Amino acid sequence: MNQAERLCEAAMRAAADGGRVTIIGHDTPDVDSVASSVLMHALLTHWSIPSRIVLPTCADAQVERVMPALGVHTDAMNGMLTEEDTLVLVDHHQARHPGRVVACVDHHPTDYPPDYPYVQIEPCGACALLVLRLMKQAGMRITEDQLRLAVTAAYLDSVALRSEKIAAKEAAWARKQARALGMEEAWLIREGLGLRDMSLPPEELAMTGRKEYDFGGRRVVSTYVQTDAMTQSLLNAILKELHAQLRLSGADLWVFLVHDPLAMRSTRYDVAPDGRVTVTEYGMLASRGKTVMPEVERMLREGEGHG
Ligand SMILES: [Mn+2]
Fold first, then answer.
1. CA of 209 to the centre of ligand 1 (A)
2. DSSP of 35-56, one letter per residue?
3. Cα of 107 to ligand 1 centre, how many Å?
């Protein structure tokens, strides 16, 4: 038995204390968030620890499209949270909802890790892969449905295995499993690239993948778009919308990313409340979780100023 898996089990068991724990992914749940929750639920069930999954907000459109095909129905995950709840965070590590956090398993690195009884934050192509590893360490027999969930999460959370956040070894594993499971790789790639329909209104393009962060009291909102067809006029319209949204939200900064998965590069636009925009170019598909937000967090916490 592995050390991480043993600590994880002990923390969850102590927390459950005969009751039930609640598994919760990040806000605007994506496929990796939901897949990680479903796998964590299976792991807790294996340990005979009662648990439920709660999606903290409405899932994104890709979840609605993809999860039913994988046999996962999210309508049963609409519970309420109260201060009495005991929470297990997956695919994020910042507590933003009522309840006491007892554990987190996440793949968004931070220089400022939280202080929960069990914290496992490791760079990884998808959080679902970390949970899958815990399941294997716990001696579980992994079903084909569970493997399919993990493989799908790997493709969809890493821009079809192209993001810098997925290690070559993990990508090779995902490709091999997809083949062995008879999954349609063209579909995984299409969903993973997630190329946006750029004829949508800029208000909509501006808001994809919205996440909120609290970096020592500084609030940051972030969204992104994946496209190979951004134009200057469309970008201007999006940035204007983001500035309006930033002022409405009262946050300190809006970080907007344009990922071009075909050119393999990302551009970051930091929109400040005064309307100033700072542009950062990445000569790669920069991962928001692995590279961009840790940079933003450092910038804000260490007060390097902005712009
Ligand atoms: Mn994820």
1. 11
2. HHHHHHHHHHHHTT--EEEE-S
3. 7
In this predicted structure, the answer to whether residue 305 has a pLDDT above a threshold of 60 is: no
Please give the distance, rounded to the nearest whole angstrom, from the Cα atom of residue 91 to the centre of ligand 1.
5
Cα gap 178→147, rounded to integer Å: 9
Cite the residue boundaries of each domain of the chain with CATH code 3.90.1640.10: 3-192
CA–CA distance, 59 with 122 (Å, rounded to integer): 24
Please spell the DSSP secondary structure of 169-212, one letter per residue. Answer: HHHHHHHHHHHHTT--HHHHHHHHH----TTS-HHHHTTTT-EE
For 3-192, CATH number?
3.90.1640.10
pLDDT tens-digit series, residues 125-152: 999 999 999 999 999 999 999 999 999 9
User: In which residue ranges of the chain is CATH 3.10.310.20 found?
Assistant: 202-301
pTM of the model: 0.85
Cα-to-centroid distance, 274 and ligand 1 (Å): 31
For the domain 202-301, what is the CATH code? Answer: 3.10.310.20
Compute the distance between CA of residue 249 and CA of residue 246 in angstroms, rounded to an integer.
Answer: 5
**Nearest residue to 13 (alpha-carbon basis) of 118, 169, 145:** 118
